[in-house]
Amino acid sequence: MAALSAWFWNERFWLPHNVTWADLENPAPGVEYPKAGHLFTALPLALGIFVVRILFERFIASPCARSLHIHQGVGRRAQPNAVLEKVFTSITKNPDSRHLDGLSKQLDWEVRKVQRWFRHRRNQDKPSTHTKFCESMWRFTFYLCIFTYGFQFLWQSPWMWDTRHCWYGYPYQAMTSGLYHYYVTELAFYWSLMFSQFTDIKRKDFLIMFIHHLATVSLISFSYVNNMARVGSLVLCVHDASDFLLEAAKMANYAKYQRLCDILFIVFSVAFFITRLVIYPIWVLNSTMFESWAIVGPYPSWWLFNVLLLVLQVLHIIWSYLIARIAIKAILRGKVCNDVRSDIESSSEDESASPTEGFKTSPHPSKGENGTNGHCASAKARAQNHNSW
User: Fold this and answer.
1) What is the CA 138 to chain-centroid distance, rounded?
2) pLDDT at residue 385, rounded to an integer
3) 154 in Cβ contact with 233 (< 8 Å)
4) I need a labelling partner for 86 at 20 to 30 A (CA). Which of 74, 169, 180, 288 fits?
5) For residues 309 and 266, is the Cβ–Cβ distance under 8 A?
6) How many CB atoms are located within 10 Å of the residue 181 CB?
7) Which of the two residues, 264 and 197, has the higher pLDDT score?
8) CA dihedral sign, ordered 154, 158, 163, 167
9) First and final C-alpha spacing in the chain
10) What are phi and psi of 361, to 5 degrees?
11) Residue 213 binned pLDDT confidence (cut-offs 50, 70, 90)
12) Three-class SS string for the chain?
């Protein structure tokens, strides 16, 4: 195990030339450098955030939803049937015509009745509008609070005004309490999202979002350990800037305030374009690629992080194109078009939704609703992920 750890944390990969882990072990009195052990604090904090989320949704968000006449609805449930349930859980949730014909003959049901059973069965486990409103309200509250804290902290930090301070003296840069709290809280939040995936109702994009959260946790952790936390804080703040606007638009959609939803979605779109297509490349990528090259010089993990940041920029461009298509339709038609994620199918008869459902910028990327516009489906919220640092 020690050999595996030594191989993984090879200082020739993670640190600049002529720097070793031993050099970072004994800082001057009163100075603290990042250590991998610091990140274990995020695990109990993640559990605390998860508990706070449950309490928030139950005692704050749920009453707010009811005050907006968003009630816990009980959808139509599929009638118990052992044969169909076995097919649904073990073979397919969307039987083709061959399966439908076979089941129709086996049960002596009409094909349309079998189709209806599968539709009701698929929909019965999906979250209600009330549940999705509560989740969006929790995310809105967290994103707004963490962005406010991060922006206030960075406002007082020299590297916000001159990004070369991200690299002066690197990697011998002290970890301040404000930066530590910002980083660990963000890390804990994404850990909590991973926890909640196993307790929330399972969705079709479970694996995709799990990989996204895992990648985000890994990038935050690795950037902390090799003391790229200064530039990492800039990446986090840029990605947090638009997330709360998206969640606000989704809440307006659930409450059926369509005009407010459209306005918030347009504002979100503008904020997304500015932060991801202007500020991120000009402010962050310029620093990580050119200023760091001039001040510190390249080394193996430097190449890795810059490649990942460039991949993220490519995703920003793709997401921005998809968001722009919906925003333009919203302006021209006066209503944001529908979008699809995995929560409610287009065949569901219960509710309609706007494309705010399909985006979760945090790559935050939250929930998607039923819709009919297939071109919007690919624009789902993986822009959160977007939060992949």
Assistant:
1) 13
2) 41
3) yes
4) 74
5) no
6) 14
7) 264
8) negative
9) 28
10) -60, -20
11) confident
12) CHHHHHHHCCHHHHCCCCCCHHHHCCCCCCCCCCCHHHHHHHHHHHHHHHHHHHHHHHHHHHHHHHHCCCCCCCCCCCCCCHHHHHHHHHCCCCCCHHHHHHHHHHHCCCHHHHHHHHHHHHHHCCCCHHHHHHHHHHHHHHHHHHHHHHHHHHHCCHHHHCHHHHCCCCCCCCCCHHHHHHHHHHHHHHHHHHHHHCCCCCCCCHHHHHHHHHHHHHHHHHHHHCCCHHHHHHHHHHHHCCHHHHHHHHHHHHCCCHHHHHHHHHHHHHHHHHHHHHHHHHHHHHHHHHHHHHHCCCCHHHHHHHHHHHHHHHHHHHHHHHHHHHHHHHHHHCCCCCCCCCCCCCCCCCCCCCHHHHCCECCCCCCCCCCCCHHHHCCCCHHHHCCCC
Token digits of residue 143: 């994103």
Q: Among residues 296, 276, 146, which one has the least CA distance to residue 228?
A: 296
Looking at per-residue confidence, does 382 or 16 come out higher? Answer: 16
Q: Residue 121: what residue type?
A: R
> What are the residues facing 361 on neighbouring strands?
384
Euclidean distance between CA atoms 290 and 281, whole angstroms = 11
pLDDT value, residue 356: 55
Count of C-beta atoms within a 10 Å radius of residue 90: 7
Per-residue pLDDT tens for 287-326?
A: 999 999 999 999 999 999 999 899 889 989 998 998 898 8
C-alpha dihedral sign at 364, 157, 184, 315? positive
Place of tokens 């001040």: 295
What would the pLDDT profile of 368-383 be if each residue is shown by its tens digit?
Answer: 333 333 333 333 343 4
Q: Convert the pLDDT of each residue in 226-285 to its tens digit.
A: 999 999 999 999 999 999 999 999 999 999 999 999 899 999 999 999 999 999 999 999
Rounded to 5 degrees, what angle do the CA atoms 380, 383, 384 make? 115
Task: Read off the pLDDT of residues 173-195 as tens digits, 9 standing for 90 and up.
Answer: 999 999 999 999 999 999 999 88
Instruction: Provide the token pair at 138.
Output: 């929790």
Q: C-alpha angle with apex 115: 110 to 118, nearest 5 degrees?
A: 130
Dig out the tokens for 37 from the structure: 């052990």
> pTM score, two decimals?
0.81
CB 276 within 8 A of CB 238: yes
